Every structure is written in structure tokens, then in C-alpha cells.
Amino acid sequence: MRASQSFLPLLKETPAEAELVSHQLLLRGGFIRRLASGLYTWLPLGLRVLRRVEQVVREEMDRSGAQEILMTVVQPAELWQESGRWELYGPELLRLKDRHQRDFCLGPTHEEVISDLARREIRSYRQLPVNLYQIQTKFRDEIRPRFGLMRAREFIMKDAYSFHMDQASLEEGYRAMYDAYCRVFQRLGLDFRAVEADSGAIGGKRSHEFHVLADSGEDAIAFCRHCDYAANVELAESAENPEAAATPAVDTPAAVLTETPDIRSVAAQAEHLGIGRHQIVKTILVMADDRPLLLLLRGDDELNLIKAQRHLGCARLRLATAEEAEEHTGAPVGFIGPRDLPAGLPVLADLRLRGLQDFSSGANQRDKHWLHLQWGRDLPWPEAWADLRLVQAGDPCPRCAGGSLEICRGIEVGHVFQLGTRYSERLGVRVLDEGGREQTVLMGCYGIGVSRIVAATVEQSHDERGIVWPEALAPFRVGIVAINGRKSPAVLSAALELHDRLEAAGIPTLLDDRDERPGVQFATLDLIGLPHRVVVSDKLLAQGMLEYRARRDSDNRLLTPDALWELLGGAS
Amino acid sequence: MRASQSFLPLLKETPAEAELVSHQLLLRGGFIRRLASGLYTWLPLGLRVLRRVEQVVREEMDRSGAQEILMTVVQPAELWQESGRWELYGPELLRLKDRHQRDFCLGPTHEEVISDLARREIRSYRQLPVNLYQIQTKFRDEIRPRFGLMRAREFIMKDAYSFHMDQASLEEGYRAMYDAYCRVFQRLGLDFRAVEADSGAIGGKRSHEFHVLADSGEDAIAFCRHCDYAANVELAESAENPEAAATPAVDTPAAVLTETPDIRSVAAQAEHLGIGRHQIVKTILVMADDRPLLLLLRGDDELNLIKAQRHLGCARLRLATAEEAEEHTGAPVGFIGPRDLPAGLPVLADLRLRGLQDFSSGANQRDKHWLHLQWGRDLPWPEAWADLRLVQAGDPCPRCAGGSLEICRGIEVGHVFQLGTRYSERLGVRVLDEGGREQTVLMGCYGIGVSRIVAATVEQSHDERGIVWPEALAPFRVGIVAINGRKSPAVLSAALELHDRLEAAGIPTLLDDRDERPGVQFATLDLIGLPHRVVVSDKLLAQGMLEYRARRDSDNRLLTPDALWELLGGAS
């Protein structure tokens, strides 16, 4: 493509609204333009990248045996009412009425629609398993859309849904999707991790997230370099062995009730009492489905509310308000503790507390804490134990011996779920089994954030000069700079000839034949991040040479046309 | 693809809701499924057809120099308010509010969004002309969605928008699109016509519609077989020469005022008076932008309101109500006539009336008509003349000598418009010209109903057994029927080998290896309309032969595998 004849609007200034580097570079390089909050137009350059992502996703989905369909953006409310999500889904679900005042929504996902299709069209176990996918526009009405494509309101997703007779078949289909996702991200040239994940509001049992690693990622991922353990920090397990016996007490001095005027935080308590934070038991009142429950953690640990909720199996878990805490414990927040609790208030303790004796905690009286408490002596051992803490970098790996956890940031670009019968039960997706009996099918669902991958790639792969596209995603593989092409017919014709030859060989090429200074031309190609740059100038032509530079390198190389051809052909 | 492993749900019965044959066959053959009124899911087979249309459209748009982008489905109301269409567009524009109560709509077209992009990104005449297009989901909230894909609410369109400095450049861009459209429809193998068209609500000057010819088409098209004249009947010109002199009167008897009790229609008038309908001048009161105007036509002609409106250049033209008619003429409907009109009521006569003398008309009194009227003698010649009549089959061609008009039905699948400055003026799309002066750009817009083409093709190309896809649109080019493949390993393996060989040669092939009777297999392939059918059976294998039939033929042919290969390769 010739830049002089293309719609490639560049921005000299970094737009003020763009915080993330991917957002800045995609705007500056003319890949996207903002239409309104969370709404972006894909310009020719950006659309080429998007299509490359789509193509790789499509090929790997097809290879896995999934079949492509296309569902609508607008969905009838009735199906969402059947699944129960019309009520459950928050204001991110954009609801609307048609001219007849019937309710619809813009689809953020398509579980309901696909379940409706399946219950009408699938009758027999012989038709299963089946996996249907689409690459389609979705809408989520984010309260504060930002970060450009990363959290846009309208975006493009690949979503797949599989249907199975039994759990074994679901596991197999899930594994096939997991493998297909690994192939997709490998082919796209991304540094990614598949992590165990919480399946969140979508419901279901087992799930993995696929994260592109990047410092700006919204998610924290704990992983072990020693083995392949990786999990979203929200779910990462602490290495405490739940089967291990509790440490017996030794030499704990007698318990002492101390005055701690207005000492409410663990940090203040440790300082005031001259002890370490790890010698404190912190006590947190939470409301599990509106019923009070005390959680105990070591003072140097943080509560992981999501792990606690999964352990409890409750629908909602939240921190109690100060009023609720005082109402249920009799003590103000900051002075609650496990000793002398009102009868009937259940307690759940983090596994790390088993190894702790001689500790301090709130005394359930204003401005008073205990010192030198000992389980079994001063207060009963908690009846219930669980892994409640947020893991930290340096923790021992929960899977292997000798490994320890690191924590990095990731951008979620894929997610695979085992939905089980969450939707098939409510929408009645039933088929006849071999014995002629009706049976509810099991479902899996599998998403890839196609448009988000474009931004995540830039987050992972850029430098101070601009984007550095992996080969598989680059809008063009080669950029040719025609130096003074407007004035030198020889340069322009040599550049055009090279351009045409590359294009004919199936190597997408952008020829910068604009009437610009060489510095501007070089800066443009660096900004838009094409993997290979070739310079044509009068001086080089006189030598019979071309100048080559890879985007990832800083060295220029003089090459004959044949050598260049071989180099680029080899990279194709 | 193997049918036994594919999601190809067929319907045995024709769904009651489907009126059009395309709707019936696409449902029965498992190409689409209805989700809700006007909303359809594309199943694997249908999506393959849709993608073939998209690909041809994309290639021809790219070949014409247009550049692909992708705009959003959801559009902010502000832009529509700027263009004035937020008020003008009826309830087909689906309006909605986001969580912050801001107004949006689902885009039925994208003139506003593209104009907004252009005014931000195009500054100089050097960047023009430019043509940007997208293939995107659109939404029109039809009051009564029907005919399946033909008039769906959510549908897929290719829309392109071009920007130009002057009319000459616009004409050139328009011509390039016109040519690209012809190539698209030719490549798709469709029998189509490009017709002069009314540009309707979208505004603008010149436009052509592209119609696929089919008896079920909603539009009537007048065309001449003698020359290349073709026009939507809404716009088709009558052959009357506006420059021709009026016929002088000869031998008209004296005018007579006759009693015509309750004779209100032309038909009743002709019968009552014993004259032909062509000897009657019918008089119709219309309201042009709410101002009364009398239109005169020959009794055997019908008024073409659209032609009248274009001639008058008014924003709205409608038939007057009975009350309005009596108020402005003093006579009840059915008795209005051109003689003795109230002063100041303007009159516009159809050109065909110039040749008429000795005619009858209403007398502007209840239950009275004139007989033997004559222009110039009994009443003044009308001051204004225009082409107001609907053309009829058999009319002389308005372009060539000796040709006559035929009228056929067509399905509109494409439309090209010269918008001029309709949008660029309101949204302020201005660039600097060579002299450094700001100038409003001219625009063209060009649409193709991508999803509608799928239905239109079926309307044009089917028989009593099912769909007959043109090669370019078929979901698979070849269908292989493995007779008793479940019982004969030899048949299945031979069929699979042929399937794999064809697929490897880039010929998309469907292998029917389902456990079905041969009759069902044949009927399925006929229904889904693949161009080439190959049968593999034990009997044929023993002969070393395959049985071949083209979907358009009724003859089976016995071929050796080599001969078949040559035949299909030749068709590729």
C-alpha cells in the first residue's frame, strides 16, 4: 500500500485523555479514533491488525473442531429473564426498548441465545458434543470506560459454547479449547500465562484465564518459576497444609489485658505493644449472605475475600459496617477479638494461625487489647479453618517443593469456563440419551477478547519510539522508506518495484512515498511498528544496495536486493 | 466437511411464518434460525454464504481504491442532532440511553459518524478524494419485520463514503463505485439491473439502485430491452416530449354540463357518460408543503407522487383530505375539475394532456361533470406542465426510438448516492483548497445489503427441490453422497479420500456421511443447493465409476474419478 494514497492520519501530540501507552500509541499511529466515551472507530491500519487476530483465532477454533456461526448483537429480554440474568446483571447490561416497547439488550455475552438455539435444534446424544463459536461485536456499558480498547464499551469478542452429555466429555472439550487458546497466543507471538481463575458472576466450576503479561495489567498473577503453577492472585492458594497439626504452645506468659487508647489498626497495635505484626490475630466481621461471621487472620496477612466466599459457598460476602460489627460483637471496630465472643457468632480462622501461639488481639472492649493469648488455654481453638489470605511474592509455592511464588501483572485476553448446567438447566437444554431418557446437557464457554488483544499486545511490545508488532500481528510486515521519492523518479520507481514484488509474494508492504523529510518517515515507521524497514535512496541505489533494519534492532544493515529478498522471504 | 460431524439442522416442514421462498428454504436448509422478530442467527452453512458475499464485496471495494475501516454499531445522538436526522428519522431509528442517561442510537447508516471522522482528520485537498468503507452490523427497527433476511431488523451492510473537492471528482468516484458494484454482482453470478432511482430520505442528487431480478421483489423496475434504460417505476419517465406543441382542437362539440349523481370515480364517470377513460381529465388536489395544488392527469393514468414531488422540489407532498379538497375548491371529491376554479389555486398538468381535446371533467359542483371540454375554448390552457404519470408496461421508451418499456420486479441489494453537501455542510466537513481557502467537501455514499443478497439470490435461483446456488456463493462447491457409508467401509473410505483431495485442492466439499437413506441424502443436497453432486456407492465402486450431477441439470453422468477431477477442476 502506498502511504500517499492511504488514510493514515497521525497525531503529533499524545492525546491528553490517553493514560495507557497502548491507547496513546494506537491513537498517535492512526490505528483507532475515539467516537465517544468507550466507542472507537478502527481506521485502516488498526483494522488490519484486528483482522489478523481474528484470522488466527478463527483458524485455531476451526482446527479444534468448533464451528462458526453468527448471533445477533440485539437480544430479546425474555431469554435473559429465563436465565435469571435480566435481574442479576448490573447496569453494564445495556437495556433498550424497541418501537413496540418490548425489552431487549445489547449482548455482553451470548449464553442465553446459544442455549435457546441448542434447545431447539439438538435433540439427541448423537448430535453431541458440539462447539459453536462466533466473532462478534459485544457491548458492556462500563461505568467509566477508559484505557482505549482495553476497556471499551463496544468491543469484539470470540465466544464459543460447547455442549456435552457428561462431565468427561466437557473436560475433553474444555481441554481442547485450552490447547487451542495456547496455540492462538503462541501464534500471535505473545508472552502469556494460563492461570487458574475465579469464574465470577458468569457462574460455573472450573475456569482458566489467559493473560498477556504487561506491567500495566489490571490483574495480579501469582506464578511459580519452578513448576507450572499460575493463578490469579484472587484465587492463588497459600502453601499452608490444611492437614498439618496445630503447633502446641510453649512458654506463653500469662495473658494480660492492656490499655490501648484509640489503637485500632494492626500497625498501631504492633507499635504500641512493641510486637511484630505477625504476633497479632486480626479479627474481621463479615456478612455472608447477610449473616455475621468472624474471620481471623495473622496481622501481617491480608484477607482474600474471594477465596473466603468460595470456601463458604455463599452468594454474597462483604465486610460488615462499623454499626453491624458493634451490634454483633458488642465492641467497636479495632477492638474486636476471638476471646469472650457473644455465643453463637461463628468463627473461621486462616490456616496460618495454627502455627501461632503467644499473640495479641482485640479484647471486645473499647480501648483494650489482650497480650500473650494462647489457643486452648485462654480461648478455645477455632472450630473452622480455611485458606483465607492473599498470597504474597516470596510465599512458598502451593504445588511444588522448593518453588516460591512471584507476582506479575497481566491483561486478561481469554477465559475458559466449565459452566456445567448453569444455563442448560434454567433454559431447559435437554437431549435424549442412549437409553431414550431426557438429560440436561453440560456446557462450557470460552471467550477471547479479540479487540483487547490489539491493545494488550502494544502494552507488552513497545519502546520509546512506538509500537513493536510481533510478525503475526503487524498491519504490514515491511515498510519501505523512499527518501525524497517525490523528487527522485529513480528512488520512487525502485521503491515501487520492491513494494510490488513483496506484495506479489504475499508480504504485506507499506511504501512511505509521502512528501516528508526522512526523519519524519523513519519516526512514522517506528511509531506504527512494522517489523522490517527498508530504505531506498539515490545514494543507496548508486551503490546497488538497500538499507535494512528490524524494528527490534538498532543496527542498520546494507544489503543487496537479493540478500534482502532472502532475509524477508525467510521471515515469511 | 463431514455432515455427520457438523451442525446442520434441517427442517422437514416449511415454517408457517415464512412467506417468501428464500425465507422457507434458508430455514429448512439450516442456513439461518429466527431468534426473535427480525433477528436471525447465522448457522454454519449460512455464514459460509455470507462470508463469500463479504469477500467478493471486499475485494472489489479494495480494487476500486476504497479503504476498509470499522465504525461502531452504537452511535451518539449528538451527531444525529447536528445532521438534523435525530428529529427527521422515524421510529426505525432505535434510540436508547446508556447508564448515564445519555442518548444513543443503533446505526442504520453511518453518514454522521464518518462525517465526524472526516472533519477531524481531513484538513487539506491533498488528502482527497478518499473513499472509506466498512462491512458492519446495522439495525433498523422495522414496524413489521418479515421475509426473513430480506427485511430483518439487524442486518449486515457494506457502506462506503467518499469525500471530494468538487463535482467532477464526485462524479468520478461515483462512477468507480457504480463499476465496482457491477463487478460485484457479476462475480456473484446474479441477474441484476442498475436503475435510476429516487434517493429518498437520505437526501442528495443522483442515485442508482442495483436490483436482483426476482418475481417476489418489492420494487417495480421499468426497463427497455432495446437500449440500456432502466429505472425504478417510482422515477421512470414517460416518453411525452415536454417540448412538443399542444394538439390544436378540432371539431369539439359544445361543452355540456351533465348530471352525474354520485358518480365520483373515473371508471364510473366513463361508464355513465359512455366515453373512454382516456377522454377524462382527472383532477387531484395535493398539499405541497401544506399548500394546495391541483394536479391534472388523463383518466387512464395514475399519479406518480414521487415524480411530482421531485418536479415541485417540495419537502412533503401528499394527497389532500376530503375536507381540504372541498375547502380549497368548493367542490366535493369526485366532482373537482379544471374549469371555474377559485382564483389563485395553482394547476399542474401532466404532459399527456396536451394531446387531449374533447374531454370530460368534474364541474366543481356536486353531482355534475362537463362533457366536450376543450383547452383554450372552454378553459385556459394550464400554465404548468410536467411528467406526473406512472409509466406502464408497453409505454414507448423515453430514451430510444422504437423501444418500449417492460416492467419487472426487483430486490434492491445496492444503492449509490451523490450526497453532495447534505451532511458535510451541517457537520462542517471543510478542508483547505489549493488557494488556502476553506471549502465544504462533497460526499457520496454507497451501500450493499450483504445479508440481503443471500436471500435475494435464493429468490432468483431456486427450483421446487430447493436452492440453486451460483458457484461463487455456494457454501460448498461439491457435495459427496456416500451411499450406505455407515455399513460399507469401502464406500466411506473412497468418499473420504475424494473429499480430502477436493478440499486439499481448495474446493470446499461437504461429505454426506450421515446414517440416512439415499433418498434423504439426495433431497438434502438438492435443498441446500450445492452446485455439484457426486455419488459413491458399492455398485459404482465395482465399476470404477462415480455418479455426477450438476444441481442445474437433471441428468446423472457416470464418470471415472479422473474425468470427475477434470470436470470439477475446470469449474474451479
TrEMBL record, chains A, B:
<protein>
    <recommendedName>
        <fullName>Proline--tRNA ligase</fullName>
        <ecNumber>6.1.1.15</ecNumber>
    </recommendedName>
</protein>
<dbReference type="InterPro" id="IPR002314">
    <property type="entry name" value="aa-tRNA-synt_IIb"/>
</dbReference>
<dbReference type="Pfam" id="PF04073">
    <property type="entry name" value="tRNA_edit"/>
</dbReference>
<keyword id="KW-0067">ATP-binding</keyword>
<dbReference type="InterPro" id="IPR006195">
    <property type="entry name" value="aa-tRNA-synth_II"/>
</dbReference>
<comment type="function">
    <text>Catalyzes the attachment of proline to tRNA(Pro) in a two-step reaction: proline is first activated by ATP to form Pro-AMP and then transferred to the acceptor end of tRNA(Pro). As ProRS can inadvertently accommodate and process non-cognate amino acids such as alanine and cysteine, to avoid such errors it has two additional distinct editing activities against alanine. One activity is designated as 'pretransfer' editing and involves the tRNA(Pro)-independent hydrolysis of activated Ala-AMP.</text>
</comment>
<keyword id="KW-0436">Ligase</keyword>
<dbReference type="GO" id="GO:0004827">
    <property type="term" value="F:proline-tRNA ligase activity"/>
</dbReference>
<feature type="domain" description="Aminoacyl-transfer RNA synthetases class-II family profile">
    <location>
        <begin position="33"/>
        <end position="470"/>
    </location>
</feature>
<dbReference type="InterPro" id="IPR004500">
    <property type="entry name" value="Pro-tRNA-synth_IIa_bac-type"/>
</dbReference>
<dbReference type="InterPro" id="IPR045864">
    <property type="entry name" value="aa-tRNA-synth_II/BPL/LPL"/>
</dbReference>
<keyword id="KW-0547">Nucleotide-binding</keyword>
<dbReference type="InterPro" id="IPR050062">
    <property type="entry name" value="Pro-tRNA_synthetase"/>
</dbReference>
<dbReference type="Pfam" id="PF00587">
    <property type="entry name" value="tRNA-synt_2b"/>
</dbReference>
<dbReference type="InterPro" id="IPR007214">
    <property type="entry name" value="YbaK/aa-tRNA-synth-assoc-dom"/>
</dbReference>
<dbReference type="InterPro" id="IPR004154">
    <property type="entry name" value="Anticodon-bd"/>
</dbReference>
<keyword id="KW-0030">Aminoacyl-tRNA synthetase</keyword>
<comment type="subunit">
    <text>Homodimer.</text>
</comment>
<keyword id="KW-0963">Cytoplasm</keyword>
<dbReference type="GO" id="GO:0006433">
    <property type="term" value="P:prolyl-tRNA aminoacylation"/>
</dbReference>
<comment type="similarity">
    <text>Belongs to the class-II aminoacyl-tRNA synthetase family. ProS type 1 subfamily.</text>
</comment>
<dbReference type="InterPro" id="IPR023717">
    <property type="entry name" value="Pro-tRNA-Synthase_IIa_type1"/>
</dbReference>
<dbReference type="InterPro" id="IPR033730">
    <property type="entry name" value="ProRS_core_prok"/>
</dbReference>
<dbReference type="GO" id="GO:0005829">
    <property type="term" value="C:cytosol"/>
</dbReference>
<dbReference type="InterPro" id="IPR036621">
    <property type="entry name" value="Anticodon-bd_dom_sf"/>
</dbReference>
<keyword id="KW-0648">Protein biosynthesis</keyword>
<dbReference type="InterPro" id="IPR044140">
    <property type="entry name" value="ProRS_anticodon_short"/>
</dbReference>
<dbReference type="GO" id="GO:0005524">
    <property type="term" value="F:ATP binding"/>
</dbReference>
<dbReference type="GO" id="GO:0002161">
    <property type="term" value="F:aminoacyl-tRNA deacylase activity"/>
</dbReference>
<dbReference type="InterPro" id="IPR002316">
    <property type="entry name" value="Pro-tRNA-ligase_IIa"/>
</dbReference>
<dbReference type="Pfam" id="PF03129">
    <property type="entry name" value="HGTP_anticodon"/>
</dbReference>
<dbReference type="InterPro" id="IPR036754">
    <property type="entry name" value="YbaK/aa-tRNA-synt-asso_dom_sf"/>
</dbReference>
